[in-house]
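Progress note, sequence design subtask.
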C-alpha cells in the first residue's frame, strides 16, 4: 500500500500505523526508515526552511514512526527497525551540516531504542548505504573529490543494499542490535562505534598546563583526522556482478 501521510508529526505517524494494521490485518512490527532529502548549504548559509526540511524528513519521521510502533513492538516482543543513516553523520562533510546532524541523531536513536528493547526479540540497527540514487546524483561536483566520487558511484546500486536490509529484518538477524553496518556494492562492513581510546588521570585535577603537557601528548597519537567521508572512501566500490537469490 502507499500512503500520502506526512509522518513528521506524532498524529500522522499513528494514523499511518493504523492504516497499515487495517491493510495487513496484523500490527506492524518492522520499520525501515529510508526517507530523506538534500538541501546542501554551509551552516551559516542554510535557511530555516532548509534545516526544518532536512531534520524533518531524516529525523522526525524516524522518531515519530518509532514512537508510534513501539507499543505494538513491545507487546509483540518482536520487532525489527533499520534506520538508513549515512557516512556523513558519522564522519562529517562540509556543506551538509543539517544532513550530518540528522544522520548523527539517527545513530543516537538507534542506540537508545536498541537498549530500551534489549529484553525482547527486537533488533534496531543503523545502516550506512552507499548507492547512486536520485538524491546522491543531485550532489554538485564542486571539486575533484566529488567529481571522482560521482564517476564511480553508479557501481554501487540501491538494489545491492536490499538483501542486507531484508536480512536485518528477518529472524536470522536475531541478536544483532545497536550496530552500524555498511553496504557498498559487493562490500558489507561492520563499523566501529565511539568508545574511549586513551585515558589519563591527575588526582590533583586538571589545569591548562597539565592538559597541554600531559593530556594532549597522550591523546595526540590517537586523534581522529579531520576528514570527510569522501576522503575516507577514496576507492571505487566493488560492483556486484552476479545477483544471488535470497
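Output:
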Amino acid at each position: 500500500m502507499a500512503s500520502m501521510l506526512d509522518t513528521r508529526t506524532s498524529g500522522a505517524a499513528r494514523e499511518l500505523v493504523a492504516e497499515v494494521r487495517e491493510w495487513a490485518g496484523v500490527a506492524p512490527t518492522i520499520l525501515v526508515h529510508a526517507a530523506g532529502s538534500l538541501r546542501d548549504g554551509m551552516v551559516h548559509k542554510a535557511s530555516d526552511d532548509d534545516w526544518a526540511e532536512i531534520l524533518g524528513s531524516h529525523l522526525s519521521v524516524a522518531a515519530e514512526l518509532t514512537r508510534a510502533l513501539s507499543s505494538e513492538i513491545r507487546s509483540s516482543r518482536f520487532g525489527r527497525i533499520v534506520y538508513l543513516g549515512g557516512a556523513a553523520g558519522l564522519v562529517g562533510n562540509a556543506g551538509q551540516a543539517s544532513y550530518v546532524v540528522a544522520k548523527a541523531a539517527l545513530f543516537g536513536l538507534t542506540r537508545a531504542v536498541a537498549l530500551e528493547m534489549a529484553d525482547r526479540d527486537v533488533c534496531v540497527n543503523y545502516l550506512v548505504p552507499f548507492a547512486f540514487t536520485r538524491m546522491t546524483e543531485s550532489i554538485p561536483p564542486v571539486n575533484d573529490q566529488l567529481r571522482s566520487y560521482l564517476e564511480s558511484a553508479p557501481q554501487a546500486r540501491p538494489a545491492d543494499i536490499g538483501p542486507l536490509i531484508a536480512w536485518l529484518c528477518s529472524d536470522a538477524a536475531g541478536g544483532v542490535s545497536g550496530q552500524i553496518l555498511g553496504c557498498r556494492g559487493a562490500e558489507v562492513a561492520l563499523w566501529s562505534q565511539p568508545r574511549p581510546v586513551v585515558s589519563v588521570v591527575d588526582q590533583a585535577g586538571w589545569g591548562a598546563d597539565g592538559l597541554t603537557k600531559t593530556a594532549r601528548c597522550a591523546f595526540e597519537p590517537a586523534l581522529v583526522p579531520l576528514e570527510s567521508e569522501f576522503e575516507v572512501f577514496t576507492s571505487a566500490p566493488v560492483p556486484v556482478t552476479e545477483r544471488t537469490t535470497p
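The first strand starts at residue 30 and ends at 33. Work on this subtask will continue into the next period as scheduled.
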